[in-house]
Amino acid sequence: MKSLGLIATIFTILSTMSFAASLPQAIVSSDDNAFGGDVDLKIESIVCASRSQCVVRAHGLEHQKVVGLEVVIGAMRGKESGLVYRSIGAESDALLAMLAKAYKVKAPGVHFTKEVFVYGGTDSIQKIKTSQTDMKVYFTEDPDMKGYAELYTNIDAKAGILEIHEKDPEYRKNIIKAFASKY
Questions:
Q1: Which of 49, 84, 100, 164 could join 39 in a cystine, given CB atoms 3.0 to 4.6 angstroms apart?
Q2: Which residues pair with 65 in a beta bridge?
Q3: H helices then E strands: how many in the chain?
Q4: Selection from 47-51, 111-115, 133-137 with the highest mean pLDDT
Q5: Is there a contact between 110 and 142 (Cβ–Cβ < 8 Å)?
């Protein structure tokens, strides 16, 4: 009986190593992004439960650590439609730590918030599985409000890439504050 448990453990470890080996490094650096704060993740799945909502799950690597999250396109908050960045546990916590380090901002917590609703990005849901979908999202509706921030969240289903790209470095603190759970 102990040997079956050992075999299952070895299989789980090997499967995890194989999964991680296929992931790209999550932080992207280029001439126009020298700070290294934009994130590209490998899409694991795109599930559209309806014509108005899809969930994208994606992962990447920060050195040898797996990072990831889910993005819900077409999420509703009252009568408002938008996106939700959703935690998937330890991988999202690692993503938060990676972003805070890249942005040079101290996170107010170590856990990624369970769900972060943002406005915008829902007009392109119909083409999410067939073509590049570029979405600019807003952390509050009013640019004068405390906590305002913008991000680009782009999905290229054909290339299998979810991009979370910064619009402007001035939003870094508010992005990390929104993504970090205080508990």
A1: 164
A2: 62
A3: 3, 11
A4: 111-115
A5: no
pLDDT, tens digit, 9 for 90 and up, residues 110-119: 899 999 999 9
Token output for 59: 């992962």
Task: Say if residues 4 and 122 touch (Cβ distance below 8 Å).
Answer: no
The whole-number average pLDDT for the span 56-74 is 94
**% helix, strand, coil for the chain, step of 5:** 30, 40, 30
Burial code (b: 16+ CB inside 10 Å, e: under 16) for 40-68 equals bbbbbebebeeeebbbbbbbbbbeeebbb
Instruction: Give pLDDT, residue 63.
Output: 84
CA 56, CA 47: separation in Å to the nearest integer?
A: 7
Burial of 148 (0-12, 13-18, 19+ CB in 10 A): middle
User: Three-class SS of residue 97?
Assistant: helix
Left (φ > 0), alpha (ψ -120 to 50) or beta: where does 121 sit? left
CA atoms within 13 A on the CB side of 132: 4
Hey, CA dihedral for 117, 118, 123, 128, is it positive or negative?
negative
Eight-state DSSP code of residue 176:
H
